[in-house]
Amino acid sequence: MDTQLITTTVSAITLVTEIFNVAKEFSTPYRKWKIRAKIKDELYEQEYRKSINANISKVAENNLQVPNPSIVFPAMSTSFLYIHEETLRELFAKLIASSFDKNKTKYLHPGFIEIIKQLSPVDCRVLMYLHDNQSKFEVITAIKENSDYPILNCELTKEFGIEQIALSLTNLKRLGILDINSYQFTKNLVFYETTTDYDDDEDDTKSLKVNPELEKTLITNKYKIAKCSAYLTQLGNSFLKVCID
Q1: Most confidently modeled range among 21-35, 103-117, 187-201
Q2: Cα–Cα distance between 95 and 117 in angstroms, integer?
Q3: Residue 229, strand partner residues
């Protein structure tokens, strides 16, 4: 089909089918892995295509555009190695669908492909939490045995554990999605004992209210805690708009 004639969702999905089939054959590592593993990925491929099409269907037809080939094709061909991971597969599906959306063009970056490749399923859960709580998420630092762990002040940390959430936040910082500034071992260190308000004379030692479920874990495992500042970077905000929205 003439790729300049993308004026409807149907024409966009038709183009996706063409790219999908070409990219699958072009993805040599994926084909070699399938041959060696002797697996059939038809079900995963069907779910992946369904997800891409569903996300494209959400784009208003007056916002449809011919996708940038430097994003859509490498994203598609790379993504086949990750279609067994539902969370990563969904991020790729949204990235590909976003390349068809004029409103997302200013947020798109080819580097997002590499970012998705370096995410774990836990990282994806953390990103979804950050997306849903952009204006109110809080990161604190748990300290034990001279090691510090940046963690989310929420039940997600209780669910996955301090070490796993700290690993995810550290990875998101490495990828440029988060900026985290820990105040470990400075005069602003606040040792965790209770949820009682701290001295209000110093801004950095004001009341530190910890999620009740997380509080129990900290007490049980004898962690100390420091206040910590964290925020989404410009890259992080753009990534959420393209791959999570």
Answers
A1: 103-117
A2: 12
A3: 181
